[in-house]
Amino acid sequence: MSPPSVALRNMVALFGDGVEPYAPTPSDAIYDEPHRKLLRYRRSAPATGAPVLLVPPLAVTISCYDMRRSQSLVRFLLDLGREVYVLDYGEITYADRDLGFEEWVDDIVPTAIRAVSADNEHAPVDLIGWSFGGTISVLTAAGHADLPIGSVTAVGTPFDQRRNGQISLARRFGQLTGGREVTWPVRVAGGVPKYGVRAGFRIQSIDRELTKPWYIARNIADTEALARMQSVDRFMDTMPGYPGRFYRQAYRQLILRNEMFKGTVNLGPDRAIDLSCLTAPTQLIGGTKDTLASSASVAAGVGVLINASEVRFTEVPGSHLGIIAGPTARETTWATIADFLGSVRTPSQTH
User: Fold this and answer.
1) What Å distances lie between residue 75 and 38, 58, 154, 213, 294, CA to CA?
2) Ranges of the chain whose pLDDT falls below 70
3) pTM of the model
């Protein structure tokens, strides 16, 4: 097809169903309960490595790991020979306003880890989490020494908010006000509604939004470039919300009090997680252009996870979303993950 014909077809598609339909990797449900649907992705051949559980952050869909065929960490891990699972939290509404970190760290994720392990002859499970998914993975591993965890990978997960650019400024302001300008509206609304999350994510990438018309005009005959653009738009357009308690905890404990860096995260009067209790091999990955979790704020975790059998930090090029699902993630973040997973050896694998 000639470039003018491709350009015309793409122009029509942009105002229709899109230049490329969304085709998620096929999967089957292991169990399906509210905010805890566990999916196993289908393989065409038997697995040759330990199972992987992908832990998403809240306020995004599981498509962050499976944007499109060429931007799918899921398919990459399947090609590595792994059994791959993901937790789907579903929609978050006002009725979920009292859900906090405890539900994920002490229930949802541990239950999934045990189920994945049992589904694989009780093998240890490699956890991979992006953004808050990494935070949840680290807290789960630190808070439950009995879980069959083989390793933890946290991508774009900040530990020291003082080194986190725009958030460090908001943190200083919140310390002066007590954070009421954030916690009070969130309490009243029961959380951060999905429309607020979507708007916030677009604001974080305002340069992309402002230059989109020029990007489309420049790439109107480049179907691959337009498909990548639309996959990001689709991702942002389907973001769910945050539960009120979870968001208030994240703001107070993680941002204002910087508890991930201090080493003990207080989720409630009777629940404190000491990060020095994490012993599994751990990998931290930070992005050079990440405005939500600067590379320096991620690297700070190396000095926090003092009892992990190994802690690696790797800096890769890209933005917050780009490092996990961007067009160069395969050669950077995913290759780093593959190298780390290939080097991890549990006691049962070394005998």
Assistant:
1) 17, 22, 19, 31, 27
2) 1-3, 169, 345-351
3) 0.91
